[in-house]
Automatic annotation (TrEMBL):
GO terms for cellular component: acetolactate synthase complex. Keywords: Metal-binding, Thiamine pyrophosphate. This is 2-hydroxyacyl-CoA lyase 2. It catalyses: (2R)-hydroxyhexadecanoyl-CoA = pentadecanal + formyl-CoA; 2-hydroxyoctadecanoyl-CoA = heptadecanal + formyl-CoA. PROSITE patterns: TPP_ENZYMES. It comes from Corvus moneduloides.
Amino acid sequence: MSPVSSWCLHSVPTMSQLGSRCPQGFPRCPRWIPGVPRASHGGPIVLQSPPMDLVAGLGCACAGLVALALLVVAQRLGLLYRLCHKVDTASPRHGGELVAEVLRAHGVRFLFTLPGGHISPVLVACEKLGIRVVDTRHEATAVFAADAVSRLSGRIGVAAVTAGPGVTNTVTAVKNAQMAESPLLLLGGAAATLQKGRGALQDIPQVPLFRTLCKAALSVRAVRDIVPTLRRAIATAMEGTPGPVFVELPIDVLYPFHVVQKEIGGPKTPRGLRGKLVQWYLGNYLQDLFAGAWEPRDPTPLPLRVPTAAPEQVQRCAELLSRARRPLVLVGSQALLPPTPAEELRSALESLGVPCYLGGAARGLLSPECPLLLRQNRRDALRDADLVLLAGTVCDFRLSYGRLFGRGTAVVAVNRNRTQLLRNSDVFWKPRLALQGDPASFMVALARSLQDFSCPREWLERLREAERNKEQDKAAVSPPCHLNPLALLQAVDQVLPPHSLLVADGGDFVGTAAYIVRPRRPLAWLDPGPFGTLGVGGGFALGAKLCRPEAEVWVLYGDGSLGFSLMEFDTFVRHKVPVIALVGNDAGWTQISREQLPLLGSAVGCGLAYSDYHAVAVALGGRGFVLDSAGDTEDTEDSAGDRVVAVLRAAQAECHRGHPVLINALLGQSDFREGSVSV
Ligand SMILES: Cc1ncc(C[n+]2csc(CCOP(=O)(O)OP(=O)(O)O)c2C)c(N)n1
């Protein structure tokens, strides 16, 4: 035993003892007492009564600690809060009303849901406040619809789903929103806080599940926390790099006091100390849940922080651009985020006069006739450009991870998110300038500072020439049976009105549409984004049509992806949401089989049938059309085209009469997508 430990064993040091040391560097040896055995190292073992100041100090410290512990316990039990905030046990009000108040104060017009008892108070309160409750046939659809509302309206889209399986059913849709940087609020029911982990119905740890899928995953603890938690949650979803936020609302913060009191129960006639303690704890728990519940709280939106590039950075980019001979702008989805209106961004691009490629939600930002708009030959243009400005475009798989730029190309990247801004810049490309900020406001500021700039004409002419040549190559040749997808989509482009919106949900058919059908205005193209999720169609169309009732909403489906949301025809019919679903029915998961078969020798798992999907739409109360080639009968290219256009127009007429419509277009083979992404 060391001298130090022998000292410590037998006596508690005072501060002065700790300060003074024996000559050897050990703490001073205490006084030896005769008759007490020596320690093994030969030193004395000492019994000493502690000095009075030590006892008093210890007593004070203990009392302080006990007082502190009591305070903490009182705080945890809500006793302190309840000193100043009363519980209104007679009130019939419930937490669902507070949820609805916050949503209404944030301009929320729709609540997408699939019901469950855990969230009933939210649904009923929303209905009362005039928020339209739209119930879907799958929770994923509810979240996709909320996502579409966020993207199109600039206001937070909201979905509410029940505890457990309701919540887990949304996982893919929430992840999709996160990857697409789309803000949304997901409200999840949950078991009563008190019953968590005790075998309650539909109880799982939901918050940890959503932590990596969301910007924030929160659980509300008491009724009084509903308003501040939701305000913060909505602001978090919308500011910076937007994304989904999950808020769990345990059932006992949503129902009225008298219902919760009855449910919490506890022993009717508590026996013994233990029973009395349990009874007291439950009563106290209930009081804490409702303390201060109905005091007035501000439900209005919190100010949002949007990162913007500094004026010097804009200036630096302006200098680079003014010297460029072959500049190019790539506009990505992020540039369409609020607060800059799309029209302002469009004017900025037109005033800069630099040729543009538009991706994701930015499609349609420039009108189809705009001479700056390019759709073909992007790879060549990127190789030949001397300056590329990435306005919200990311160097991920869509830009071949940054491998497409020419050797001497100066790349200027603007993105709200630092990770996205520099994605793969350590490997395949190097930015000349990397600016963390909102791409839209950056482009507007850049256009203002470069009012005299004009892009060299020869460069623009050269790109337009290549564009024309490529467009001519897209001649649609009829396959031996059924329709050519190119011809069908050209007909769609022909009949599409100026006020229309396209939802893309599928593989090859939709990939082909992206080249052929031209969205007519900003925010008139919705696709899943970089998560590449099949199944967004029903929800996106639902949210889009509700936001833009005056627009003709088309969903372009593959026959495979249609299966994920075909049942939502029931939702469209019940909620009077007339949309047009065009199904490119090629009897298979073609984007996958296209490469699986030649590479691996089998198309196993990729086959579907030419099923009567239109009949399902009819059975659910919608309208259905089949579109096929004329088979053996005489059908010239022109008359075939006319026939297709006639069916599309008939579908439009049904839609304008208020009916959701499904056009089941039977497709033959096309090699248009050969060589493109196939995973
Ligand atoms: C939820 C989900 N499951 C599977 C995939 C993989 N996948 C990508 S494209 C594709 C085929 C799509 O087939 P279909 O919708 O019929 O369109 P087509 O390629 O036949 O035009 C599949 C299965 C995916 N992206 N998302």
